[in-house]
Model the fold of this input.
Amino acid sequence: MDERIYWVAFNRVSGIGPARVRSLLDKFGGLEAAWYADAWAIGRAGLDRRSIESWLETRRTLDLAAEQARLEALGVQVLIWTDTDYPALLRQIPSAPPVLYVRGALVPADEWAVAVVGTRRMSAYGEAVTRQLVADLVAAGLTIVSGLALGVDALAHQVALECGGRTIAVLGSGVDRLYPARNRGLATRIMQQGAVVSDYPLGTPPDAVNFPPRNRIVSGLARGTLVIEAGDQSGALITANYALDHGREVLAVPGSILSRSSRGPNALIRDGATPVLEAADVIRALDLEMVLPQREVRQMIPATDDETRVLALLSDEPCHVDQLGQATELAAGELSSLLAIMELKGLVRRVGSMSYVAVR
Done:
């Protein structure tokens, strides 16, 4: 049986989140071995009594083959931490979900994404701004991430689709429990031109407690979060706070100081968020002026094993070409050509004359 099903199984166990999954991997080397371990060994991995009891009950009642069949029947792709196509931006956040359920498809172009969020009760101004900004961001080659909620979220998805762009909807329920009901048709269209994703198991209802944590994924999939309209207690501000925690850019559209729905973005701008008057402000703030050329280069020149090896050696800290040459055993000319191509693809950036960093 595919190793992923054991990740799915542990994802159904109450009390086992990212930190405990890491502990299980460290202890057992894989989740299949952990699934069939005894309670004493599981306890040694750091699980408390309540989590162990939940695991034992889930192991007793969960039919792994039936769960696999449900996923396949719905066309759900399961992505786990160890997958190379697990979203790179999401992988970087501290609370990255061990399991991501996907209906539709995530593609490499989604690395260039911006989250667009806001109130469920948008004004005429908020609607006009959302339409204009999203259309221009899509034209610039960006993927739009949002939460499928009524109001700004749904309109952002809709405009992205209308403009022929890609969009990702992040749910606070299982991907088989599309919510809100009014947006089920929209969700179906998103699956054809993007993806509907969740870290909640199949069958999870859209309970209120699920939505604040899901906002970390909205932020985590994007290079920055744009808040268009939001009250001072809005869920959009939770997403903005996650973006700050993740070290991502927060952007906001200013509005009237007399408007309740502009209190959130106005406060964000006062506290240091980037004010947005046009899509170009977003593109500049996120350093995405080269999105379309970089995408074209990536399409024309496929990734190679040498490229993967170089990327694995690079981080946010500058690495000298001599170090890269020693580690990869590539000839100087060959390495120089490779790095030049990777710069054109937007994968690396030269720092000084002889050092490089990864572009995350």
In short: The chain has a mean pLDDT of 92. The radius of gyration is 22 Å. The first helix runs from residue 4 to 11. The chain has 18 helices and twelve strands.
